[in-house]
Design a protein that fits this description.
Elements lengths: L1 H24 L7 E7 L5 H15 L3 E2 L2 H9 L7 E9 L3 H10 L7 E4 L11 H10 L15 H9 L3 E4 L13 H19 L5 E3 L10 H10 L2 E3 L12 E2 L2 E2 L6 H8 L8 H9 L3
């Protein structure tokens, strides 16, 4: 299965290069693109360097925008023929502050950080940490995945630096697996209340754990619809139209730049459109 997937992705990469060369040859201008990237725990020196190189490469073709600019652009009727990127980070690992401090702030890029509210400041060897890290990595975390979460001062630093935060549930449970409605509401609503009270801000962005079609359902979307203005998925796509449900592209620092640009060019979007339409219908 993995070999077949790799084969398809390689075909898409080749298709992207052919399409790009044709567009350059014919001097075809870019159409409007509004993509959102998901990163997670970018922590090793090698990963940080690779991440930095990715951002510098993308800056040559894309305009990086803040969460506020993203909202404005999404609602704009006459969209410019430019390519835009919003950066997001999920889970709230300690490395997120380092990335913001050492790279994003220096490049004047403002990102959106989705925080697991019960994860904040949890000691590595505590039961509370173990519970949440196992929710993040259901197959069990590898040793290198046992990373510290941000503490309250780290998140305050992000906010004072001009970044924004959003909710990523209370403890990173898969929402579609919660049969008890009170548990569902707790994961969705209690996290929002905690973050708003602790940091004195209004939270309007939510990213559901795992981001897949299978990880969310009608009941959870109905609750989310009442409490958040924007709900971020992990389904790839171009955010052309105003909608509460947001497409996002999952990437990692090790991803080759050709593969990353192939995804951003929309070469894999058709795999996700049908599922995205079904999720959108749950809002009605």
């Amino acid at each position: 299965m993995k070999c077949f997937k790799d084969f398809i992705l390689n075909i898409l990469d080749i298709f992207f290069l052919i399409k790009k060369n044709i567009r350059n040859l014919l001097s075809i201008k870019s159409s409007f693109q509004l993509r959102v990237l998901i990163y997670h725990d970018v922590k090793s020196d090698i990963q940080i360097k690779l991440f930095h190189n990715q951002i510098l490469s993308l800056k040559k073709e894309y305009v990086f925008i803040s969460p506020f600019e993203f909202e404005k652009l999404l609602k704009k009727k006459n969209k410019p023929n430019k390519k835009y990127i919003l950066l997001t980070f999920d889970d709230g690992f300690k490395s997120n502050r380092k990335i913001a401090e050492e790279i994003l702030n220096k490049l004047n890029i403002k990102a959106l950080f989705f925080i697991i509210s019960d994860f904040i400041s949890k000691p590595l060897k505590s039961n509370a940490y173990e519970k949440i890290i196992n929710n993040i990595y259901p197959n069990g975390p590898r040793k290198e995945e046992l990373s510290k979460p941000m503490d309250y001062d780290d998140i305050k630093f992000l906010l004072t630096s001009g970044h924004q935060i959003g909710c990523h549930t209370l403890s990173h449970k898969k929402l579609s697996s919660l049969e008890n409605f009170n548990d569902l509401k707790s994961e969705i609503i209690s996290s929002k209340i905690d973050l708003e009270n602790n940091f004195g801000i209004k939270i309007k962005h939510f990213a559901f754990p795992f981001g897949t079609y299978e990880s969310i359902n009608h009941d959870s979307i109905q609750v989310l619809n009442q409490y958040y203005e924007y709900i971020f998925s992990g389904l790839r796509g171009n955010n052309k139209r105003v909608t509460k449900l947001i497409y996002r592209d999952a990437v990692n620092p090790e991803m080759k730049i050709i593969r990353l640009k192939s995804f951003l060019n929309g070469n894999a979007d058709f795999f996700y459109k049908r599922k995205f339409r079904i999720l959108k219908s749950y809002f009605n």
